[in-house]
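Homework help board

Subject: predicted structure for assignment chain

Our instructor gave us this sequence and asked us to write out the predicted structure in token form, then describe one feature. I got the tokens but I'm not sure how to describe them. Can anyone check?
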Amino acid sequence: MIEQHQTVFGYPNGNCFSTCVACLLDVPVEDVPNFVADNDHWFHALEKWLVPQGLIPLCVPVEDRLCQYDEVTNALSIATGPSPRGDFYHSVVWKDGDLRWDPHPEGKGIDGEPQHYILILPMKPVGDDDE
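My token output:
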């Protein structure tokens, strides 16, 4: 994972989320669109950008408790929760139930518990038996 700092700050156009995507994919932040800037459909925009690369995002909302996230994976993910700098959300890289990297230069993470996690997974066509 390449640790990078976000280049756009504050609500609503900050690119902390896109910077986390760039960190996980080991690509420069400049090569990743700002999915949340003026976009209520940020998850669809992320999916549309990832699928041609053979990747797909998976959102695990904390309140749904579909799984005990921290107990089933040690994968890097993007955790989003309250920002320590205002009344808006902030995204960070998360692993093993804890902050792994904060793209904001202050490095304060999130203020409280994550609201959801985003994992970026490789796509595998149905019926593809090649490992």
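Reply (TA_rk): Your tokens look well-formed. For the description, you could write something like this. The mean pLDDT is 87. That's the kind of observation they're looking for.
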